[in-house]
Design brief:
The structure is a single chain. The protein has helices at residues 4-18, 31-36, 39-44, 140-148, 154-159, 169-179, 192-207, 210-217, and strands at 23-28, 50-56, 59-64, 69-73, 78-84, 93-99, 103-109, 115-119, 245-250, 253-258. With 263 residues, the protein is α+β, with helices and mostly antiparallel strands. The protein has two domains: 4-119, Alpha-Beta Barrel (N-terminal domain of MutM-like DNA repair proteins); 140-258, Helicase, Ruva Protein, domain 3 (Orthogonal Bundle), CATH 1.10.8.50. The strands form three sheets. Strands 1-6-7-5 form a four-stranded antiparallel β-sheet. The chain has a four-stranded antiparallel β-sheet with strand order 2-3-4-8. Strands 9-10 form a two-stranded antiparallel ribbon. β6 and β7 (103-109) form a beta hairpin. α6 (169-179) packs across α7 (192-207). The protein starts with a helix and ends in a 5-residue tail after the last strand. 34% of the residues are buried. The structure holds zinc ion (ZN). Zinc ion is lined by residues 238, 240-241, 243, 258, 260-261.
Length: 263
């Protein structure tokens, strides 16, 4: 599932392709996508110039010159496939936008859970999100205050977008391993020193995310799943202390951690 780094990467690719352009065609190609992205909504996107593409949490926000907004949530498997209008259609193409310079913007999504919605001028409001973990104002004190207001174990709390924006199941597990904090520790009982470690760990795992590295290096060499330090490594030795990684389920989501070095 795309988390902050993957959504950031998707937004960057979209931004590079569509800023200053206009759409000459817009169409939903799958019934699930067409529920929100109706024919009427598609028509409204044709004509006005794209002025910005932003990301907040896992939401991509495309603003047009007439102040209309296209909001995109990738959900489970959504992504952009960008090419030329006369290329063969990519697999799982669920929506297609053609730009005035002939660029093809395809929304590809094998599970088709992604949501694209068009908002009338002035009608778009952002959901309530917590701080962006890669912003400078995401300090240990900010995180400590947020955690002290929470009940329950730290791992599910980290997935709550109102606490921190953009963190998902994989990077939450990775950050807790990096910070040596057990995923079932009560969130409001983690003291400042450990919260500082957690804050640094969250930033580290997001900055080292495969898609971020991919973006920087242009060419990906390692398969993505070999880059996780703890996620999906049940039974394999901890890369820090060699104890076997265990898996537990919290709120229906798998959590992986080391019983020896995460306390
Ligand atoms: Zn360990």
């Amino acid at each position: 599932m795309p988390e902050l780094p993957e959504v950031e990467d998707a937004a960057r690719r979209l931004r590079a392709a569509i800023i200053g352009r206009t759409f000459v065609t817009a169409r939903a190609l799958h019934p699930s996508t067409a529920r929100a992205l109706t024919d009427v909504a598609c028509q409204q996107l044709i004509g006005p110039r794209v002025i910005s593409v932003d990301r907040r949490a896992k939401l991509q926000i495309v603003r047009f010159a007439d102040d209309r907004v296209l909001a995109v949530h990738l959900r489970m498997t959504g992504d952009w496939d960008i090419g030329r209008h006369d290329d063969p259609a990519p697999p799982y193409e669920r929506a297609r936008f053609t730009c005035d310079d002939g660029t093809r913007i395809s929304f590809v999504d094998s599970r088709a859970f992604g949501v694209l919605t068009v908002h009338d001028p002035g009608a778009f409001t952002l959901p309530v999100y917590g701080p962006e973990p890669l912003d400078a104002d995401f300090t240990a004190t900010v995180l400590l205050t947020a955690l002290q207001a929470q009940r329950g174990p730290i791992k599910p709390v980290l997935l709550d977008q109102r606490v921190i924006a953009g963190l998902g199941n994989i990077y939450a597990a990775e950050a807790l391993w990096e910070a040596r904090i057990r995923p079932d520790t009560a969130a409001n009982r983690i003291a400042l020193l450990r919260v500082t470690r957690l804050r640094d760990a969250i930033r580290l795992v997001l900055q080292q995310a495969p898609s971020m590295r991919y973006y920087e290096r242009v060419e990906r060499v390692e398969p993505v799943d070999e880059l996780w330090r703890v996620y999906d490594r049940e039974g394999q030795p901890c890369l820090r202390c060699t104890a076997p990684i265990v898996r537990i389920v919290q709120k229906g989501r798998s959590t992986f951690y080391c019983r020896r070095c995460q306390r």
